Amino acid sequence: MRILAIIPARSGSKRLPGKNTKYLINKPLISWTVEFAQSVPWFTAIHVSTDSQEIADICINSGVPVPQLRPAALATDEATTFDVVQDVLDERRKQGQSFDSVALLQPTTPVRFKQRWDDAYQLLNSGNYDAVVGVSPADTHPYLVFRNSEAGFLEPWVSRDITLTRSQDFPPAYAVNGSLYLIKVAALLKQKTFFPKKCGSVICSEPVENSDIDTLFDWRVAEMLITDWMTQ
Question: How many CB atoms lie within 10 A of CB 132?
């Protein structure tokens, strides 16, 4: 199976400007993801999609070539991750390179465990799934989430068995953690989503692998978690 690892890293973060090149502990944020991608032997190739020469230079110095910068139209807030990945696949196809699957690694999640990816790889190879994503136990269970009705009263967001009053009796609930996306190219291009109908999951249970950095607060929490993890 030919797998293209794609790292989308644009420069235009509004909530935490310059975060991809900002040092997290001991190296730029983007380097955490680049180095992880380099450690996975079953990635056929690594492609960093960025509109920033500074980000590109960091990747190049780490041994990952960035032959061209991302088109400006794909570096806006309106551009979706699917748009970026489709552009990368189109560019690779023009170069005569085709891939069976795509691994998406968002640099906002700096710490990954290789075993999670190996598990995802095995699931995808089983033939039962078109994609596998990383999930973590939900911070707030859907049974405890509400919305305001048109009449202005709180109502449950999802219906549930009213006899379940203890949270420990609720069925497991998971949230996408952003650290792992592995999907077959055919399913991605046909369904235009990283969550196709036949989508499996790998549970990422450690707090350090569930950091998703969008704000300065997220950054501070990630620093604390990673520091604790590195000293264990």
Answer: 27
CB–CB of 28/21 below 8 Å?
Answer: yes
Per-residue pLDDT at 76: 86
Do the Cβ atoms of 34 and 59 come closer than 8 Å?
Answer: yes
Q: Residues near 114 by Cβ (< 8 Å), separated by ≥ 6?
A: 36, 39, 40
- Do the strands 3-8 and 101-104 form a parallel or antiparallel pair, or are they unpaired? parallel
**Nearest alpha carbon to residue 108 among 212, 228, 199, 220:** 212
Superfamily designation of domain 3-137+173-230: Spore Coat Polysaccharide Biosynthesis Protein SpsA; Chain A (3.90.550.10)
Predicted local distance difference test score (pLDDT) of residue 165: 77
**CATH 3.90.550.10 residue spans of the chain:** 3-137+173-230
Give per-residue pLDDT as tens, 72-102. 889 888 889 999 999 999 999 999 999 999 9
